[in-house]
Amino acid sequence: MKKISAFLSSHYLIFLFILIAALSLFGVYFAGLATDTIVGSVNREISQITKTIAFEQEGWVNRTNQVLAVLSDVPEVKNGDPQKCSEFLFKINQIYPRYDNLGLIETNGNVICSALPFPGKINVGDKNYFQETLKNGDFSVGEFQVGSITHKRTINFGYPIFDSQNNVKYVLFAALDLDWMKLLFENASFPDGSDLMIVDRNGLILYDNMDMTKWLGKKIQATDILQKVLVDRAGTIESYGIDNEKRIYAFTSLSSIDGDIVLIVGIPFSFAKNQALKLIYPYGFLALLTFFTTIILFRKRNAEVL
């Protein structure tokens, strides 16, 4: 009778362990489904960060417009005296360190004053921001460029200064450093291996936080990213980056910058998968532990019954 009771008790115990194992396997299954959910969540997160960077960039465009508008009315600037203008803009540049340079340009394109010293003659008559300001008599935003004086990658802005006949006499310019973009990206606490790129619609890399000297001016090879960027103004895609690392990318157009520029942010695909595996491992471990415990107990109880 005791053997029968022990046999039945063992069966109830085994049933309990099997139930736990089944629930654990269901946990593994649902955690597997959660992988796609996590990847989707990562997609949404980097998409939001991309929009935040783009929004911050829009803010700098507006702030630059205001700064140049104020400076254009200062006598040291609008009178066009090279020495007084340069000295004044140097002081202003110390207050606004985000600008790599501030300066004044004649209508023939010659730079006549600058916060930074420059040797000889500098002509920027071919620059888009200068031409647009001269043509429209209004604030303009240029393309990403390597500054003729700073020799850094910047976005340049132009603002008109008029003479008594309401003709454009000078173009006041500001060169915005791109490091603020990198700082904003780093402050977002992305995982190691994440990437921030700025490209034009042809895929030419204008900025890359991983290695500027290696990738600057080169074309991204991921044709699927290029095709997506060409079709959509914003979106997400899983693809391989310029370093052949698979990432989840989010992109959006920087609409206020001339030249149809696209901001792309990517995080390693492995990071998203690892986040999902953190959910699966506990359930899998519990399922295996329960399975082997059930086998051991079953053999032990069978030995006792016999």
Q: Explain this structure to me?
A:
This protein is an alpha+beta fold. The protein has two domains: 100 residues, PAS domain (Beta-Lactamase, 2-Layer Sandwich), CATH 3.30.450.20; 120 residues, PAS domain (Beta-Lactamase). Helix content is 51%, strand content 24%. The chain is built from eight helices and ten strands. Strands 2-1-5-4-3 form a five-stranded antiparallel β-sheet. Strand 6 and strand 7 form a beta hairpin. Helix 1 runs antiparallel to helix 8. The N terminus is likely disordered.
Summarize the structure.
With 306 residues, the protein is α+β, with helices and mostly antiparallel strands. 51% of the residues lie in helices and 24% in strands.
Estimated helix fraction:
40-55%
Could you give the order of strands across the largest sheet? 2-1-5-4-3
Share in β-strands: 15-25%
User: What would CATH call the class of the largest domain?
Assistant: Alpha Beta
**Overall mean pLDDT score?**
76
Regions with little confidence, pLDDT below 50 for 5+ residues: 1-8
List SSEs in N-to-C order: HHHEEHEEEHEEHHEEEH
Largest sheet report: 5 strands, antiparallel
Per CATH, the architecture of the largest domain is: 2-Layer Sandwich
Decide which structural class fits the backbone.
Answer: alpha+beta
- Terminal residue distance: 13 Å
What is the number of strand segments?
10
Determine the CATH superfamily of the largest domain.
PAS domain
Q: Within the CATH hierarchy, at the fold level, what is the topology of the largest domain?
A: Beta-Lactamase
In DSSP terms (H or I, runs of 4 or more residues), the helix count works out at: 8
Number of domains: 2
Shape: elongated
Radius of gyration: 31 Å
